[in-house]
Amino acid sequence: MAVPARTCGASRPGPARTACPWTGCGPQPGPGSRRPASGPPRPLWLLLSPLLLLPLLAAPGASAYSFPQQHTMQHWARRLEQEVDGVMRIFGGVQQLREIYKDNRNLFEVQENEPQKLVEKVAGDIESLLDRKVQALKRLADAAENFQKAHRWQDNIKEEDIVYYDAKADAELDDPESEDVERGSKASTLRLDFIEDPNFKNKVNYSYTAVQIPTDIYKGSTVILNELNWTEALENVFMENRRQDPTLLWQVFGSATGVTRYYPATPWRAPKKIDLYDVRRRPWYIQGASSPKDMVIIVDVSGSVSGLTLKLMKTSVCEMLDTLSDDDYVNVASFNEKAQPVSCFTHLVQANVRNKKVFKEAVQGMVAKGTTGYKAGFEYAFDQLQNSNITRANCNKMIMMFTDGGEDRVQDVFEKYNWPNRTVRVFTFSVGQHNYDVTPLQWMACANKGYYFEIPSIGAIRINTQEYLDVLGRPMVLAGKEAKQVQWTNVYEDALGLGLVVTGTLPVFNLTQDGPGEKKNQLILGVMGIDVALNDIKRLTPNYTLGANGYVFAIDLNGYVLLHPNLKPQTTNFREPVTLDFLDAELEDENKEEIRRSMIDGNKGHKQIRTLVKSLDERYIDEVTRNYTWVPIRSTNYSLGLVLPPYSTFYLQANLSDQILQVKYFEFLLPSSFESEGHVFIAPREYCKDLNASDNNTEFLKNFIELMEKVTPDSKQCNNFLLHNLILDTGITQQLVERVWRDQDLNTYSLLAVFAATDGGITRVFPNKAAEDWTENPEPFNASFYRRSLDNHGYVFKPPHQDALLRPLELENDTVGILVSTAVELSLGRRTLRPAVVGVKLDLEAWAEKFKVLASNRTHQDQPQQCGPNSHCEMDCEVNNEDLLCVLIDDGGFLVLSNQNHQWDQVGRFFSEVDANLMLALYNNSFYSRKESYDYQAACAPQPPGNLGAAPRGVFVPTVADFLNLAWWTSAAAWSLFQQLLYGLIYHSWFQADPAEAEGSPETRESSCVMKQTQYYFGSVNASYNAIIDCGNCSRLFHAQRLTNTNLLFVVAEKPLCSQCEAGRLLQKETHCPADGPEQCELVQRPRYRRGPHICFDYNATEDTSDCGRGASFPPSLGVLVSLQLLLLLGLPPRPQPQVLVHASRRL
């Protein structure tokens, strides 16, 4: 019995439709469901499968047309499968290409990738590369300590006594408002000439070093001038290092005074705004200057904290957080009578970029009220540090307290938690200008091996929130040689333009003594660093022998990737390291968690796994088999891994010793051959050193041909493996043209093009005119169709990419095509490999018409089915396209073909954007599964500022009552207001300024953000399936079936007539995560496995803690304050003095 259609509301002309034939038709399940939830008992016949139900749905008076039976649709599916297979057999040339390879067997050898040997060799090469840098580092650190020890301090040193190249001098001369220009710099600044060096991606001078001094440090101070004096001797050591190892990149000494001396000299990259660069805040310096830290920051938010002082505290906390690295753990709490965390974090969390961002946002919400209760704050902090049930650094422990002052010393708290061992250091910060007695704050710090600092104004924040590192460095200095160990950093962005780098760091100690028999100096002089560009490490890995889907990766002790093909940050902020976890670089699963843990633990291993991979264009998910092999890189914190698909175990290596054959094949690369042999795109690889790269493939091919006319493929300046394979594949693909393509009429089968792409880097498109509309990447290894074809059996359809926000496809001139590709599997003896992919490009319109015919009841090509008024006929996709929707959807859920003409311009769109109701039903019936992941490297457009007013933000504006209140004039508010306005001339909008923007990022540049990605892939249903979209009077019948040997799903459904059954729409496009991805508060409850550095220097019995900060409270003069305020009100501000003197303890 035929299955009739159904009606919805008022009838319309044409075949009638019946209503939903049973009760209980409810709303469609949402995206999160798989099957309708069980409800009240239903009649047995309702529990029958859709296959048995559908014949029961006939109604009296049914029309002449009914919904097609399952066997009919299966018949249509077989016709579609046969048509695709027939075209691919005739035009794809898979079998013919296999024969061509075998016919040319004497022209290549089959090589094997042996994973264990390969990964051990690469690890060894990387170890050797880094070891050369380590030796250079040690020479530099030893020399620096000796130079400083031999240096004699000069109290009367003057700027004119020092000659050096100031890296920022050129930028300051170009800036008419620069202070050095205004007052005339007394220092003898060198003027240098520079030459372009591609290794540094910069202009350099190899005869000199350059010096960078932070903006907020006075260049003429005695401390800085003495520092410049003794570090000048490092110049010769830098040069000698380069003589011994010409591959060395930046060699840098970052001084604890803030001075940076680096080699070779190059002008500083002047930012467009205030230059806030300070070497002591760079990731590599922080990591090298101290051992890992467990830090609790407590902030006084009692009512005595004025509005401006509270803002200083908020900014100070944010600056303090920037001194922490991924090896550190932190929590932040506010306190008055009680203490509470400022964020959702209830315990110490890793000080990574995302956690620090949560803290910084939460700190801005702090509100001052209540009374000061130091006891509550310190008890909370000690409890946090004593919690042993969480992951933490387990090295330096410290409490940082920010307050405006108080009388309580909370000695009982220290006696209970910290004495007599004093394992927790206490640092106290007096914030703002006030007349409180600071003696209790000094005592707290001195009694607990810490330090007392004063932050009276904006200009003191940066320098005083980083000086604590000197105290933490004391045990390292006293440990001597034991602490002189090279550490390698996370990946970060080089400030001078090298791109992504890692840095080897080595601390430099002060070896001087105050006198014979006196105690050793405890000061750390600074950190020595040598950069290694990631590109230099990548060059040590095999590029093209691993195939399109094989790769090498490396991770550090935090699980962050050092090398990975998916490490592609869209935007970088050089203040922060680039931290992409291995489990975020790939799609996470239990096997990868196990591999990651083993690598962090420094073990060797091998494991074959089934896993999900994301396509290169991030639209598809494939389930694949991968072999993971890993080994540690000795003498470093890194571990190296190799990933190989089984089909990449072997690869071809061309052996074109016959020069006549080389010339013959090379001629098929010449544009003059394209008309008869098809257009050739060559992969833009580094074939030779002198080959000029170009993003335009036509120009690149021209450059390649010009170079080949001068050199031979066997030239020493060329990569012979790449060149020979390229030329071999040129000849092999030309033979495919000759044997298969040239004699075929593509129009007969409505084909726009045929093509072949190879591991050797050739993409040949036939005929030549089809190359005009070829948009695939000329590098096969970077082409999504190529990589997916290797991972999937059968024919892979790829519709043109369409974004929902863009206009529909334009179907003019028949140029829109659908790629169909398949891998060529070659068996040579017992060795199997896939060296090429072939395919065709279907004419969209012609194949849409053909699709209708193939999914119809025609018994003859030109004769549609005839159906009389007294006979029952099944609907088909051609005759009944007004009532029946027929589509082909690929494995990612994207529309490939439709029998609806108005949907042709929507081909390539996610099907939910075409028919949300039907796509949801397919998902709920397990035809599709969904995978959600997060892209932590995305870039987003800058958010518009929330404050649209013209006044500077962050300035405290006194009310009339304040002016009339004499107490206000003597309070911290008046003094802090003056200080803020004074420094605000230099640090404009400093409280709110984006650090990246302030340090030179172009205005309106996109910022880093997290994007949520959703991909769909075929679920567990493989068989033919009938179902009903249960929606009351608007229910729809549909049938879905996978097409064998393809990535297509064939779907036939009744067209929707009602809109009241609209269910939730499935989303596939990327969406911005305002909360930076998965909820951080939940993630920290299940932290990923990591290991900190294996050494810790947080205690030394000989440490002298007597230097713990001394300050005095200077009550401001009422007369001076009134005069200054009047000057401000009259618009006559005094001349600002932005430089901050280096801390007195820096005297050497």
Strand content: 15-25%
Mean pLDDT over all positions: 83
The residue ranges in which pLDDT falls below 50 over 5 or more consecutive positions are: 1-63, 179-184, 945-1004, 1112-1148
**Which radius of gyration do the C-alpha atoms yield?**
36 Å
Helix content: 25-40%
- Based on Cα principal axes, name the global outline: globular
Q: How many helix segments?
A: 33
Got a strand count?
Answer: 41
Main beta sheet: 7 strands, antiparallel
How far apart are the first and last residues' alpha carbons, in Å? 100 Å
Description:
The strands form 10 sheets. Strands 7, 8, 9, 17, 18, 19 and 20 form a 7-stranded antiparallel sheet that branches. The protein is globular. The protein contains 33 helices and 41 strands. Strand 14, helix 13 and strand 15 form a beta-alpha-beta unit. With 1148 residues, it is an alpha+beta fold.
List the helices and strands and how they pair.
Elements: H1 50-53, E1 65-66, H2 70-92, H3 94-103, E2 108-112, H4 115-150, E3 163-164, H5 169-174, H6 179-183, E4 188-189, E5 195-197, E6 202-204, E7 210-212, H7 222-231, H8 234-244, E8 251-255, E9 260-263, H9 283-289, E10 293-300, H10 307-321, E11 329-335, E12 339-341, E13 349-350, H11 353-363, H12 374-386, E14 396-403, H13 411-417, E15 424-431, H14 439-446, E16 451-455, H15 461-464, H16 468-472, H17 474-479, E17 487-488, E18 492-493, E19 500-509, E20 524-533, H18 534-538, E21 551-555, E22 561-563, H19 582-585, H20 590-600, E23 605-614, E24 621-632, E25 639-644, E26 650-654, H21 659-666, H22 674-677, E27 679-682, H23 697-708, H24 720-741, E28 751-758, E29 762-766, H25 784-791, E30 796-798, E31 817-828, E32 831-843, H26 844-854, E33 873-874, E34 884-890, E35 895-898, H27 916-924, E36 928-940, H28 960-964, H29 966-969, H30 972-984, H31 995-998, E37 1007-1018, E38 1025-1029, E39 1036-1042, E40 1048-1054, E41 1071-1072, H32 1080-1083, H33 1118-1129
Parallel strand pairs: 1-33, 3-4, 10-11, 10-14, 14-15, 15-16
Antiparallel strand pairs: 2-26, 5-6, 7-9, 8-9, 8-20, 11-12, 11-13, 17-19, 18-19, 19-20, 21-22, 21-25, 23-24, 24-25, 27-29, 28-29, 28-32, 30-31, 31-32, 34-35, 34-40, 36-37, 37-41, 38-39, 39-40
